[in-house]
Automatic annotation (TrEMBL):
SUPFAM superfamilies: Galactose mutarotase-like. This is Aldose 1-epimerase. It comes from the Bacteria. One of its GO terms (biological process) is carbohydrate metabolic process. InterPro entries: DUF4432, Gal_mutarotase_sf_dom, GH-type_carb-bd. One of its GO terms (molecular function) is catalytic activity. It holds the Pfam family DUF4432.
Amino acid sequence: MIALDDGRMRVELAPERGAEIRFVGRSGGDNVLAFYDWAAPQPAGPAPLGYGDPELDWLSGYRGGWQEVFPNAGAACTVAGVPLPMHGEASVAPWEVVAADERSATVRVAARLPLVLERRMTLDADRAALRIEETVTNESDLEMPFLLGHHPAFEALPGMRIDLPGAQIEPIPAEGVIREGDAFHTRRPEGWAALRDAAGGRGVALAWDLETMPDVWVWHEIGGTGMPFYGRSRIVAVEPMTHSPGDGLAAAVAAGTAHRLAGRATHTSWLTLALFDADERPVRGVARDGQVTR
């Protein structure tokens, strides 16, 4: 486990499993991510310990938190003769730790296609914000397609509001169950979102590279009974993505919405997550440095 902590903000990630981020919060405070340390279900392993289904294989190890999906997003598929798992192998494979200290970390992972993703994470010097800069490198001489996205799951609190440019999701009920797996795939040209718990004063803001991730997936599991949730979770996710809907890289290639990276070329992108003091006022904008405008 790697921990970043500058006295304002704390971030914890697990390089051994997808470099998934398991904790984001104020130093000494609560986790704004929904992460559950469930013993069961048993995560899929090599045959015969798999579930015989790529979606169940991925979900069996899912405990919430924040994954990065690459080079596939959504359904498992085959591209260039190579099978790609649901949400891409980068979301579950071990990542190499290139460098790490109290304020920053750089991690890297190779894909099944000849692509390498490097993520540089830094705590901002001026505010409680995590700044991510990423580079995809094509190590081959051939053009290669890919999808890239972020899969953060936040704790769904009663009365929480989500601000999206041009749209707003109504409060999550304090009681009752919304339909399992409700999801929305929405193009958001402004490239930011904010989640506000006015009662608790807790706010989370996202800003991202709109050219790399022009779409947003929004979904929730609030008391859902399917695997691996079994009624134990309260999750709402706001996910910047390359392509909608979540039908995978092969479908995105066919639709012309996948990124295509020339041989030996690189592609850079960025995303910022900031913490702020929330109230009833809607958020009007989030800058790349994490500054929130109301």
